[in-house]
Amino acid sequence: MNRIHTAKIVVIGAGFAGIAAAATLFEAGFQHVQVLEAMGRVGGRVYTMRPFGSDIIELGANWIHGQEGNPLFELGKEHGLLSEGHSASTKMCLPGSITPCDYFFKEDGRLLQAEDVEQVCALFSRLTTRAFDSELEDRHCCLSLGDYLDNAFAESPLAATEDGLKVFEWCKRCECTDEASSSLYEVSASQISHYEALEGGFFNSLGPGGYQAFIDVLLRKLPAGVIMTNTPVAHIEWALDESGKRSTHPVQIVCEHGQSFEADHVIVTVSLGVLKQRAALMFRPPLPNSKMAAIDKLEIGTVDKIYLCFPERFWPEDCAGIQLVWDNGPEDAAVYTSELEGEAWKETWFKKICGFDTVARHPNVLCGWITGREALHMETLEDVEVGDVCMRLLRSFTGWPVPEVSQVLISRWGRDPYVRGSYTFVPQGVLAEEHGALVAPLPPEPSSDDRKPLQVLFAGEATHVNFYTTTHGAYLTGIREAQRLINLYT
Ligand SMILES: Cc1cc2nc3c(=O)[nH]c(=O)nc-3n(C[C@H](O)[C@H](O)[C@H](O)COP(=O)(O)OP(=O)(O)OC[C@H]3O[C@@H](n4cnc5c(N)ncnc54)[C@H](O)[C@@H]3O)c2cc1C
């Protein structure tokens, strides 16, 4: 019998990576593939919900990052999962502007001039692009992203104005959302060039089924019963063929509720956050030092959303978002350094909120974004308390008649035991080779000895050295590891 028909494969995790891996394996003819998912739902960090009526909101991923060469953009086009779309960028209200735009308010309630904001945002964008495109000057290469941006911005005449400086700090706070970091002083300026941005900008017009519709397309490729939800894996025993135990398969997966599964291969797609917390106990024998070092050195940051549903819209129709510009924001280098040791930042956690954006298909809903340690702290608070704080911020910054919020929904990705963070970033000092060690399967293939190769394989967003953080990165890693096994058997 064809070995492909008898090989047993277990996939851990039913996010984009795990589902893509399973779908690819079934398409190639594998018949014994089981997906074990800890949560009571599939999708992982894709979480399409309907808390405010029949239209969707996304608690996790909501953009397709780039269009050219993005397999999920292609999947969306093929299956009609996209709406008439546009690329997201910060848009300010210029005189005569008729497209929706962002309103930038200072702490004292002053609305900033759109032209002034736009100049600073455009410069910020040019400076970050330079880092992403590996075009940094030598003197900037060894700096953190925050220090590089501070140095480069200081050379611009825009840095001479108080408002220019404050808008620049706002830009840094927003960039923390992309980097999933507490601060840009944690992120390497040169290493972010390993991240590859696909052409076409952020595509933010998913169709009415949202990201879940993409997951559903992949699920249709799986036979019924392949995914077992509410099945958290406790540990993975591998190299059983060498251990002297009488085992017909080299891998055994043991779940928290007692079930166990024998396999020839296991594809592990749990997040970097879960690996950080559990890898030392999860694998028997332990993972090699190079893998553990990668898990230790790479970082996963927390990005959370705060949905506020109001009884009616109180912002102008052309307003795409209300952005908060603080006098002493948390992203300021001096503030960050002085408060790093203490806990004072917990008192002002809300200063990390970038602003509140309008939400597609929900005329009365705003969505706030918050990152890093402040997001983690917010997750400890009750939704209603967070809602009250946000209402007070909106009232004091805008001076508009903000009604009482009727529903609040916040994400808690940092404290979710099966995620432990939102997406990966590469801290200062981590080399591309070290990131690569996270990807390496165990034992490698071709094997230098007679051990069975590819017993434990690693997929998931963090394991893509160029598209980490993204849904398409996660999806491609699932296919990559499935393909590794297909190559082994064909
Ligand atoms: C707030 C937020 C916004 C985002 N925005 C975007 C965006 O706009 N665009 C974009 O491209 N990306 C975005 N992302 C990132 C994107 O969601 C992820 O990169 C991607 O979904 C990760 O998929 P994955 O399969 O690698 O991991 P996951 O989706 O985390 O899947 C891993 C699965 O493993 C399961 N698991 C964990 N431990 C165990 C265990 N012990 N046993 C069994 N199962 C286990 C988990 O429950 C989970 O379902 C965002 C993420 C967040 C949190």
How would you characterize this protein structure?
The chain is α/β, with parallel strands linked by helices and 490 residues long. The chain folds into 2 domains: 3-44 and 207-299 and 425-489, FAD/NAD(P)-binding domain, CATH 3.50.50.60; 90-200 and 303-410, Polyamine Oxidase, Chain A, domain 2, CATH 3.90.660. It is 33% helix and 18% strand. The chain has 15 helices and 22 strands. It has helices at 3-6, 16-28, 71-78, 114-132, 138-141, 145-154, 162-179, 210-219, 272-282, 289-297, 333-339, 372-378, 383-398, 432-436, 471-489, and strands spanning 8-12, 32-36, 48-49, 57-58, 64-65, 87-88, 101-106, 202-203, 227-228, 233-237, 251-255, 260-263, 265-268, 283-284, 299-301, 303-309, 319-325, 355-359, 362-371, 407-410, 423-425, 456-458. α2 packs parallel to α15 (471-489) and α4 (114-132) packs across α6. It starts with a helix and ends with a helix. It binds flavin-adenine dinucleotide. Residues 12-18, 36-39, 44-46, 60-63, 65, 232-233, 269-271, 274, 303, 305, 411, 413, 418-419, 422-423, 460-461, 469-471, 474 line the site of flavin-adenine dinucleotide.
Please describe the topology of this protein.
Layout: H1 3-6, E1 8-12, H2 16-28, E2 32-36, E3 48-49, E4 57-58, E5 64-65, H3 71-78, E6 87-88, E7 101-106, H4 114-132, H5 138-141, H6 145-154, H7 162-179, E8 202-203, H8 210-219, E9 227-228, E10 233-237, E11 251-255, E12 260-263, E13 265-268, H9 272-282, E14 283-284, H10 289-297, E15 299-301, E16 303-309, E17 319-325, H11 333-339, E18 355-359, E19 362-371, H12 372-378, H13 383-398, E20 407-410, E21 423-425, H14 432-436, E22 456-458, H15 471-489
Parallel strand pairs: 1-2, 1-13, 2-9, 7-17, 10-14, 13-22
Antiparallel strand pairs: 3-4, 5-8, 6-8, 10-11, 11-12, 15-21, 16-19, 16-20, 17-18, 18-19
